């Protein structure tokens, strides 16, 4: 088998990058929509008035931007063994403390 080395083409890398990032906003909204569909019934989203709605517009209007410390009480409940849908629609299987 012949070892063929490909020459690095910076212009091609830039072009490829531009193609895959052209619709990044739409892709992010689609990804958020999928996450909301899987987790729409969680306690966390219900507290912000989502009430099972999974559309991106409602999420943006209802759910504030938070930091990790805001989520600590929910995470601690999961660590303590609570398997109810707190932050995720499915039970958390493992948590890394690193």
UniProtKB/TrEMBL annotation:
It comes from the Eukaryota. This is Uncharacterized protein. It comes from Solanum lycopersicum. InterPro entries: GH3. The lineage of its organism: Eukaryota, Viridiplantae, Streptophyta, Embryophyta, Tracheophyta. Pfam families: GH3 (PF03321).
